[in-house]
Amino acid sequence: MVSNPARSTESDIVKADPTTILGKFLVGYQGWFTCHGDGEPVGPGHHGWQHWCTYPIADGGNINTDYWPDMSMYEGDELFPAPGFKHLNGEQAYLFSSRHPRTVQKHFRWMAENGVDGAFLQRFVGAVEEKPGDMGGLNIRDEVGKLVEQACEKEGRVYAIMYDAAKCKPKERLQEILEKDWKKLVNDKRILDSPNYLRHEGKPVIAVWGLSWADSDHTPETVRSIAKFLRDNTPGGAYLYAGIPNFWRTAEGDSLPNKDFLPAILESFDAISPWTVGAYPDEPGVDFHAQWRWGPDVDFLKKWEQDTGRHVEYIPTIHPGGTATNMSQGQWPMNGAPRCGGRFLWRQMYHTKRLGARTVYAAMWDEYDEGTQFLPAFVQQHQLPVDQTGRFKFIAYDVDGHVLPSDWYMRIAGYGAEALKGRYPLDEQFPEKVLQDWRHSHPRREQQGEASGSGSGSGEQGLAPAPVLA
Q1: How far apart are CA 245 and CA 224, in angstroms?
Q2: Is the confidence at residue 339, as pLDDT, over 50?
Q3: Is residue 25 a contact partner of residue 355, using CB atoms and an 8 Å limit?
Q4: pLDDT of residue 46 exceeding 90
């Protein structure tokens, strides 16, 4: 069970600095969970349960998560009954919707309470294409985008758009859709008017994820053309961030086998972040990856800067663990990348800091689908719901033998954010005692001259802060 201490006042939170990407612990925010009855239908004939399941379980649908969110911190109309799922005591099981304003604000409030700086808001190129007669996907991305902007402004967090280009084919359609959408966001939605939109050296940060993946049809010319468009069509220019394959440097594995991508990306983008979810399953794998991928990547970029005079920031991707048996319908193992009570995540944080990372990207704040979420999930097995068909099994955070507070991974993220700013050490020793006492030292009290950023705290009464184990 969890208890909610009294909500802190807005002056308690140190606001994230929206003027630089450096020193940031940034998370991905999918914002893609919808529930039946949470608003206008997401598309013609759609049942409403987007990403939680393929369609209602009672009708033979497939649930898409191995963890179940701890719903004890959600209240009233934030609770959507999950058809076909009840707890062992017979009580109805519930899920949340990313379309609910209080829910989105709550997710960003938890970032603020723990010191996490903000999020890259995922914007899927395949979902933002205007399709006459089926505008549900685009409308929801716009709807959630506005909620994220408002939440950041209320909670003093930063955000930036991250276009997910991985599944959009052909490449000509990718650029056409992206260009139209970015112009709409800048000119019609006015997203850059927000004081909490992340900038670096005065330029808005824009991320494009999924370039040069092995299953894409991208070309080096695609990379250069997209980057040029974004720079030319963003007021004041743009700071461009590329989410790229893990094997970007050697053009093998998950990358298209074309070494011309390397100069195209490094000449076009200001920061790169290789994708590592699935690249290593345990702590020894992290050590191996740090020695043979992260370390050589960093050395390569130092040499690149020496040779060309152009600095490209290296932003590692880290994650707390992963599991996606239900989503993959049994093709991926349950608990395939065990969290080990946070030590798996900590090992990644230790190596990235050791190798000089000034910013990290953490996947993902809310991705229950693949089990990479930082948001609270049920702590113990007996708390989990069961489906009446008996087809699905779930795991809790105690699966690795650690009984943890449901907000444990948000605490670790907050510690990582503080460590990047030099406020905490980040060595090999997992700081379990500090994390257990996290609620006594956070939120950090804002001291005179210390806080930066222009987001205002929320004045909404009754919004629950981060959960605490009773």
Answers
A1: 17
A2: yes
A3: no
A4: no
Instruction: Locate 266 and state its tokens.
Output: 């490094």
Report the C-alpha gap between 120 and 205 in whole angstroms: 10
pLDDT digits (tens, 9 = 90+) for 149-184: 999 999 999 999 999 998 787 878 999 999 999 999
Q: Do residues 340 and 346 touch, judged by C-beta distance below 8 A?
A: no
d(CA 366, CA 65): 11
pLDDT tens for residues 87-103?
999 999 999 999 999 99
Report pLDDT for 1.
36
Identity of the residue numbered 366: D
The pair of three-digit structure tokens given for residue 146, joined into one six-digit string? 């506005």
Contacts with 193 (C-beta within 8 Å, 6 or more apart), sequence order: none
166 is written with which tokens?
């991985």
Residue 63 is given by DSSP the state B
Question: What residue segments make up the domains of the chain, in order of their start?
Answer: 2-31+104-129+139-371+396-469
3-state DSSP helix/strand/coil % of the chain, to nearest 5: 35, 15, 50
pLDDT-based confidence at residue 55 (cuts at 50, 70, 90): confident
Q: Domain 2-31+104-129+139-371+396-469 is of which CATH architecture?
A: Alpha-Beta Barrel (3.20)
Quickly count: other Cβ atoms within 10 Å of residue 419's Cβ: 19
Average pLDDT over residues 135-153: 94
Q: How many CB atoms lie within 10 A of CB 58?
A: 11
Do 206 and 186 form a contact (C-beta atoms < 8 A)? no
Task: For residue 336, give the DSSP letter.
Answer: S
- pTM, 2 dp: 0.91
Helical pair 408-420 and 101-114, crossing angle rounded to 10 deg: 50
CA proximity to 241, closest of 117, 376, 108, 121: 121
